[in-house]
Amino acid sequence: MKYVTEYRDASLVRSVIDEITRTVSRPWTLMEICGGQTHAIVRHGIDQLLPPEIELVHGPGCPVCVTPLELIDRALIIASRTDVIFCSYGDMLRVPGSGRDLFSVKAQGGDVRVVYSPLDAVKLAQKHPEKQVVFFAIGFETTAPANVMSVLQAQRLGLQNYSILVSQVRVPPAIRAILSSPTNRVQGFLLAGHVCAVMGYWEYPPLADEFKVPMSITGFEPLDIVQGILTNVRQLEAGQVDVQNAYTRAVTREGNQVAQKSIDKVFMECDRKWRGIGTILVSGWCLRPEFDRFKAEKRFDVGEIHTEESLVCIAGQILQGLKKPHDCPAFGTECTPENPLGATMVSSEGACAAYYRYGRVSLQND
Fold first, then answer.
1. Where are the beta strands (DSSP E) in the chain?
2. What is the pLDDT of residues 116-149, one digit of tens each?
3. What pTM value is reported for the model?
4. Which domains does the chain have, with CATH numbers?
């Protein structure tokens, strides 16, 4: 259990929190950008162990949560076709579209399958040449290498029945959008360790310098997270701005350059709409023109779709760190994991799901 048990050692975590308490002298607001970190923070009660001067707010780093409603509606149209095997990761099945979800399509007879890798979808395309196989390629930089490898593998095999519905988003432009907002209150960032393991962290120093905001690359265990918080607090208290790597066992500055080259071969930067937030310039990847034949939207002619989000759901404000899940009037009542109004309640990385699962309520009401 190397690199697991020692990073869950309660005495080590407590010692770092004590150091944070000794260091902090004024209020600071930090954002963990990744939904996996949000779940770790809430599950282990880290937010409640920190001194009151430190507030953690939750960022848009849940790829399921930020997949736009119209793209989910496109997925539902494609998945409903009798000639399609629609493949997706499991946490997408309950994400609500305009009127239903992929689980409902499956219940009504659609061939919707949960896979653990896009290469599983490629194998299905080989096995079922009479069907069109579509993979819902969502995710941040972490999932991009496997998604592009599925396209390259399908190309190598000469498959005519494989395509992907792409919703690839990128972290640095999202951070820029948050920091550029007139309502921004974030003063430091905990960066997603798994994203940086792929991409490195060479993209972040210019952002930190431009907006004068310190950042720390952070893992997902309790000790990882509190160490990342400590490095941010030390910089803030000293008036310093830097990008520090608190996850050196997995992350280098350059990242995985082989993976980056494969991404660049298949994908190109594009504007992306983020659910609950809106369009962020050059915040995503899409297929290059030479790979157009693998583009599911084009293959199935699912054009412009006009949608309307729930007027009650405040997921967009939660994803920007402006509000917490318990600030939503529908939280835990009208909106639950069984009947979600938004993706933040149903995704395995969603902030609302974390608060619901681990019983987090407003501390003001405790």
1. 28-34, 54-61, 84-88, 111-114, 132-139, 162-169, 188-192, 215-218, 243-245, 267-274, 278-287
2. 999 999 999 999 999 999 999 999 999 999 999 9
3. 0.91
4. 5-58+171-245 (3.40.50.11750), 65-170+265-273+290-300 (3.40.50.11740), 315-359 (no CATH)
